[in-house]
Amino acid sequence: MMRKIITVSREFGSGGRELGKRLADALGIAYYDREIITAVAEKSGLAESYIEQVSERGVPMYYPITYARTLTVVPAFSGQHIKVLHEQSRLLHELAGKSDCVIVGRCADCILREYHPLNLFVYASLESKVRRCRAREEAGEHFTDKELKRRMAQIDSGRARYRELIGGSKWGDKAAYHLCINTTGLEIKPLIPAVREFAACYFEGIESKE
Amino acid sequence: MMRKIITVSREFGSGGRELGKRLADALGIAYYDREIITAVAEKSGLAESYIEQVSERGVPMYYPITYARTLTVVPAFSGQHIKVLHEQSRLLHELAGKSDCVIVGRCADCILREYHPLNLFVYASLESKVRRCRAREEAGEHFTDKELKRRMAQIDSGRARYRELIGGSKWGDKAAYHLCINTTGLEIKPLIPAVREFAACYFEGIESKE
Predict the structure, then answer these.
(1) Running DSSP on this structure, what letter comes out for residue A122?
(2) Do B175 and A186 touch (CB under 8 A)?
(3) Distance between CA atoms of residues B125 and B121, nearest Å
């Protein structure tokens, strides 16, 4: 029987992480998100904040080079970047090999392509994402709307950059996902049965072709 | 209680029409697709093929004009185009006012915006769409792969044009839809329970805010 891997890519503030967690609980399978960063940090001896920056926000510098007679832009990899990306990829394969799971972020949809994961994308309107971020703001923490929107845009553009780097395809382009869920104005919890049903169809469809 | 309107936009060959029909059957509500063209033809006295061209494929000519000091491109409307678009919009409002329904195509998501319809977008990989078109080819009819792909691209670009004309937003841009379903390699029938569950969440979410 095939391993069932579900990846969740999401816009910041869309509730994608909650959706991933609840879906894993409903299916009774493993869930990975920040655990991956912690494990990579332990293994590589680098700080978690650094791992997070590389693994979720991409590599900030690019070099123009001439490749096959065309001017191309490639990321300015340092040895440490490569170490982090390599360790993260190794870890994702190890986790996927071990048991069915839901993985949020980390470009798992690209890195684990050979497992035929079900790839979900979770998104929402800007206003809805601002509201969701406000609702989970910690006491004492307060961003203005403008700050919050700038931060959201920064995080998402980092995710987009990382995805292009790893997967070669455009982050958020629906062609790369099996189901794109707009959470604008919706609670996450009641959505789980629908996503679970879709996941079952997807894995049955894949299995019947194996 | 709110009227429940579900609109289905779809790439040609993605199975969106079948999904709309099956969903309407599962929910026990009305389903409209070609019926709309037939009704507009009867009402306007114009040929169905002409209505179809205008209403699904957009208006082929554009004029550049200066509007608010900016050079802009507007569609070259004829009186007949306007008549068709007007009659179609009137008819969609009439149908939506009458009962809950599923409407495939016709930019119903834009035209019926005030009903807060659930907007679905159905898509698939090119290979999958070609396979689906082949499976429903009529006896005696045979397109080469190249012809089929050209025809699919023509139809979809017409749909995109019509949508931009009517709704001002980009056809297929996930932000305009509540759920985007990739049917690549999947049967349509088993997907219906998942879509039905999602629809229930959506209408509950909307209703709780009314």
Answers:
(1) E
(2) no
(3) 14
Contacts of A174 in chain B (CB under 8 A): 121, 123, 172, 174, 180, 182
Tens digits of residue pLDDT in B130-142: 999 888 877 667 7
pLDDT of residue B121: 96
Mutation pick from A125, A181, A196 vs chain B, by most beta carbons of B within 10 Å, is A181
Q: A180 vs B180: CB contact, 8 Å cut-off? A: yes
Q: What is the ipTM score, two decimals?
A: 0.83
Q: Do A193 and B197 touch (CB under 8 A)?
A: yes
Render the burial of A7-43: b for 16+ CB within 10 Å, e for the rest.
Answer: bbbbbbbbbbbbbbbbbbeebeeebbbeebbebbbee
Count of all residues that appear for chain A in the document: 210
| pLDDT tens profile A48-81 | 777 777 666 555 444 444 444 555 555 555 667 7
Q: Looking at residue B128, what is its pLDDT?
A: 92
As given in the structure block, the two tokens for residue B159 are: 């749909």
Say whether B181 and A184 touch across the interface (CB within 8 A): no
Residue A181 has pLDDT above 50, yes or no: yes
Q: How many A-B residue pairs are in contact by the CB < 8 A criterion? A: 73
Residue A143 burial (C-beta neighbours within 10 Å; 0-12, 13-18, 19+)? middle
